[in-house]
Amino acid sequence: MTRIAQVTDLHLLEDRHDSRSGMELWRLRYLTFGRSPCARRRRERALDALVRARMTDADHVIVTGDLTEDGVSAQFEALAEVLSESKLSPERVTLVPGNHDLYDDGRAFARALEGPLRAYARTSRPGAMTELRDVLIVPISTAVPLPVTRSSGLIEQGAVERLGRLAEDPHFAWKVVLSAQHHPPGKHAIAAWHWIDGLQAPEAMDALLARCERLHVAHGHAHRSENRSIRAGASPRVFGAEAVVDGETTVRLYRATHGRLVPETDVALAA
């Protein structure tokens, strides 16, 4: 058995964000509307979640996007500091970007992996994978540059094709193949809302999930816990977790065994 911990949607802020002006200030006010803009509180919640993930003795921790509030460099530096303070070994952590991480700059996450997050590049860069005894973890980016008024995502066709090859590779025949990504697969029931917030061009990923029984997805973005089956009567293979920024449970724990990923428990935020 292999144990995986999921942490998602940290939405970290830089300490001196109140010194912003102009469009950067407007953007941050728009994105933080309805939530506390306290950088210290968000950092404390993120650190608590990561420490609790480490204390579960999980074999690996996936952080499924919206690592920052709008992807400015200082927020990625804050993330690097929090990860270091958590005492998690970089080889035990996979990071993927969310839509919030690219609002400032479409290359912000890639640049962070070359800079403050370089210790996590081996497990988190495009094309990476982490092979454990019972699971193959594949980071999949759904983040694309968008105006701040949209929150949708897209998986590049090449990434879907590679994921399919891994899921069908006989070398991994007894392993769960886990796509760690920000946006959930599938469509919103309302077409207009899907265009604003959903995973665009979802048909290729949906077809892959229908074809490959060992392929599972752990996602963020929805800010809620989810266990979803691909077809009626089947075991769930799409899983979401509560957001660290505003959730009550900030770590979701799974066990991988015999080609299945099974939710084990949710870990609550410290009182």
From TrEMBL:
Claim: Transport is one of the keywords in the record: no
Highest rank taxon of the organism: Bacteria
InterPro entries the UniProt entry points to: Calcineurin-like_PHP (IPR004843), CNP_phosphodiesterase-III (IPR050884), Metallo-depent_PP-like (IPR029052)
Domain Calcineurin-like phosphoesterase span(s) in chain numbering: 3-224
Coiled-coil stretches: none
One MF annotation (Gene Ontology) recorded for this entry: hydrolase activity
Keyword Metal-binding: yes
Gene3D superfamilies according to UniProt: 3.60.21.10
Keywords: Hydrolase, Iron, Metal-binding
Family to which the UniProt record says this protein belongs: Belongs to the cyclic nucleotide phosphodiesterase class-III family.
Protein name per the record: Metallophosphoesterase
The species this protein was found in: Polyangium fumosum
Classification lineage: Bacteria, Pseudomonadati, Myxococcota, Polyangia, Polyangiales
